[in-house]
Structure formats: C-alpha cells, structure tokens
Design a protein that fits this description.
This protein is of the alpha/beta class. Helix content is 37%, strand content 13%. The strands form three sheets. The chain has a four-stranded parallel beta sheet, sandwiched between helices. The protein has a two-stranded antiparallel sheet with strand order 3-4. A two-stranded antiparallel sheet has the order 6-7. It binds iron/sulfur cluster. The site of iron/sulfur cluster (SF4) has 12 residues, from helix 2. Iron/sulfur cluster binds next to helix 2.
C-alpha cells in the first residue's frame, strides 16, 4: 500500500496551537487506499501544545507580538522532508491555511483572519523536493478517484505525457495521415476526392442549392424595404 504523509491534526491528533484537532471524516476513505503517516511539523520543530498562533509575515514567521518562530518552523519542515525520504513518500495531504501546512492559501500576517494566496513553510519545502502536496479542503477527491479521467484532470502536462508514454501512446510518435486512415476504413481515396475525367462528381449534400430561400437569399434580402425609412417618408408626406 502506498504511503502518504498527512497533517497529524487531520487524523484527529490534538496538536493544533489551541490543543485540539481538525479531524476530517473523509480520512476514513483514504485509509482504504493508502497507508497514512501522520506528521505535525510545528510539534516536530519543537513548539509546544498549546502554543502561540503564528503567521507568515514577509520572509519571517511571527507570533502576534512579533516574536520570530522561523527557526522552529524551518526545523519542522526539514523533519517532514526527512520523513518523506525515509518512507519513500511522494504525496502529502496538508491542512489548508496553516503557516506550516497551507497548500493554496495562508493568513496574511496581520492576525485579522484575512487569507491570501500562498504556501506554508513545510509545503514549500516538500514541493521543492518533488513531493506532491494536496490541500485538505479541495484535493482529496483526487486521491480516492477511481476513474482515470478524474486523475488526469489533476496531473500536470509533464505527468500526463509520462503516463501516455508508459501506455505506449507516445505523443512524439508520428500520426497517420487522414487519407491513410480513410483507406483503412474502406473509403477509396480516388472516388472521394479526385474523380477522373468524364466521371461524375461525388454527390455532396446541398450541392447546387441557393444559400437562402427560393430566389436566392442575398438578392431577396437586399430587396426588402427598410422599415425605418418608410416610416420617415410617410411622416414627411403627411406633414
Ligand atoms: Fe496540523 Fe500542520 Fe498545524 Fe501541525 S502544523 S497542527 S499538522 S496544520
């Protein structure tokens, strides 16, 4: 069974800054398909439970009073990477919006509950070493998707190319010309596209027909009086 690194608070460990958890019932579905390896980078980096909440502000990670906790957060990220290497893990599911685990967004650093686009410290570290990180809120469908089409939606261009090559459908292989395909399907190239002298042309749908109406659309259309003008003329006469 493939192993996945997962934010420990998502599987029910009470390791958040408040001392509670962010348990996701959906985890039970994942357990059927993957072996989950719970990991909390903040606790692994030496922070206590409970602890002061932190947010990323510029290049630093600070508490509300401005104390830097960058050292602990970076240590936690490095330990998460070590765990991935140890267990040969290439996928991580992380708690969205956390300064460690956020995948798509984080808080803006002013402790006013405003989210911005960004990644947590651990997420940045893992992704820079090739671990695919998924958000706990948006991407879990991918990991339990049974239909291969759904999987493809989440693959990058390069990953899709690798998948095609694996199946022997290399995108670099030359495509067959259309005429060759038609011949294979039993349609003669000569009869369809190149009639010999004296031979009748192949019947084409709508051949010889005028484009619009019985008398030819364009002429008929041009003869039609312009309603606005006629109204103007009658107005002049009456005046
Ligand atoms: Fe959960 Fe990650 Fe925060 Fe730990 S660091 S409590 S795993 S979100």
């Amino acid at each position: 069974m493939e192993k996945i690194l997962i934010s420990a608070c998502l599987v029910g460990d009470n390791c958040t800054w408040r001392g509670d958890n962010n348990y996701l019932p959906f985890i039970e579905e994942l357990k059927k398909k993957y072996e989950l390896v719970p990991f909390c980078p903040e606790v692994a980096g030496g922070l206590s439970i409970p602890r002061e909440p932190c947010e990323i502000r510029g290049a630093d990670i600070v508490t509300k009073d401005g104390t830097s906790k960058a050292k602990e957060y970076n240590l936690g990220a490095q330990k998460a990477l070590q765990a991935c290497k140890l267990f040969n893990i290439t996928i991580a599911i992380l708690k969205e919006s956390s300064p460690s685990c956020g995948v798509r967004n984080i808080y803006d650093g002013h402790f006013n509950q405003t989210k911005i686009v960004g990644k947590g410290i651990t997420t940045q570290m893992l992704e820079s070493h090739g671990v695919r990180c998924y958000s706990s809120e948006a991407d879990l469908r991918f990991l339990v998707a049974e239909e291969k089409k759904k999987e493809k939606e989440y693959l990058s261009f390069e990953e899709r190319g690798a998948l095609r090559r694996k199946k022997g459908k290399s995108s670099s292989s030359p495509r067959k010309p259309r005429s060759e395909k038609k011949e294979q399907a039993g349609v003669s190239k000569e009869k369809t596209f190149f009639p010999k002298n004296g031979e009748k042309k192949p019947f084409r749908k709508n051949e010889g027909k005028k484009p619009f109406g019985k008398k030819g659309g364009k002429k008929n259309f041009a003869k039609k009086p312009y309603r606005g003008k006629r109204i103007q003329k009658t107005n002049k006469k009456s005046a």
